[in-house]
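Tokens for chain A. Residues wanted.
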């Protein structure tokens, strides 16, 4: 059993090293589109103010310090306030920013599903009555002869 202990320890260290190596590394582009420039009021990835450049430098420093994405966002909120985050709050009136688009999509899908049978029925009725209407009135003998003569010229 004592012979297996060093091997087991080595295997455990190897697994830990692989887990650390596989951990996703935070990048500036991962965070830039999720935070706002406090001066411009736009996402940091499109902001062009000196403040935005300072904010990017701060994020780069925090990434270099090894902070995760959530830890960097927490630091940015501490530095600039809650308005620096691009996502709305999950409470109060701001929850409408999440719920209203979802409710609109659900309502549109429900309306489409409710109206689909009616659209199909109307389409079937139109197809059933269409052949008679599409052919038009019958041609008299003279018109039929002229039409055949014209078609023969193009063949």
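Reply:
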């Amino acid at each position: 059993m004592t012979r297996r202990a060093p091997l087991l320890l080595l295997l455990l260290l190897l697994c830990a090293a692989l887990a650390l190596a596989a951990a996703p590394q935070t990048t500036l582009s991962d965070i830039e589109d999720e935070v706002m420039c406090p001066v411009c009021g736009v996402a940091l990835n499109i902001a062009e103010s000196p403040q935005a450049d300072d904010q990017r430098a701060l994020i780069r420093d925090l990434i270099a310090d090894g902070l995760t994405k959530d830890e960097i966002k927490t630091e940015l909120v501490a530095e600039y306030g809650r308005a620096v985050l691009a996502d709305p709050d999950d409470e109060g009136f701001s929850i409408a920013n999440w719920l209203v688009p979802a409710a609109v999509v659900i309502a549109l899908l429900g309306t489409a599903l409710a109206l689909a049978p009616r659209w199909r029925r109307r389409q079937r009725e139109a197809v059933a009555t269409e052949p008679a209407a599409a052919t038009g009135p019958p041609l008299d003998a003279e018109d039929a002869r002229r039409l055949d003569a014209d078609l023969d010229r193009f063949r």
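The helical segments are 4-22, 28-32, 50-64, 69-80, 96-135, 141-154. Residues 38 and 81 are 9 Å apart (CA to CA).
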